[in-house]
Amino acid sequence: MGRQDGPVLDDQVCFALYAASRAVTALYRPLLDDLGLTYPQYLVLLALWERDELTVTDLGRSLQLDSGTISPLLKRLEKLELVRRERRSDDERSVRVALTERGDALRAKAVPLPGLVGDAMGLDGAELDELRDTLRELTESVNAYRERL
């Protein structure tokens, strides 16, 4: 028999989020293996497919990653010849990240992925939109709370 006088694992929102995140990431893994990408690399490319090019700072902000995490990701994507990094001529401190032809071509192969994952989630379009919006609000709220600590 378990003790019921403390927090219960299955009642924790944090555990539900953790389990859902792991399940979705695991679903993506074989799909991304076919593209030769990891999930974090896919996220970088999603941001670049949307905007063509970004500074490292803007990319990190978009993905909510610090420079210590984004730099190795970009280095690996550069080795795969999917992105290129260039120092801006007008500001040597700023590095611009752009898709290569190969990186841009990969976009067509990735188009079906969100639909496949959405189908696996068992939610209709409106439910997916609502879930995404709720998760964004949760992230903003938690980040704002952390900043006050």
UniProtKB/TrEMBL annotation:
The name this protein goes by in its record: Winged helix-turn-helix transcriptional regulator
Lineage: Bacteria, Bacillati, Actinomycetota, Actinomycetes, Pseudonocardiales
PROSITE patterns the UniProt entry points to: HTH_MARR_2
GO BP of this protein: response to stress
Compartments reported by the entry: Cytoplasm
Superkingdom of the source species: Bacteria
Organism: Prauserella cavernicola
Assigned keywords, A-Z: Cytoplasm, DNA-binding, Transcription, Transcription regulation
Record-linked Pfam families: Staph_reg_Sar_Rot
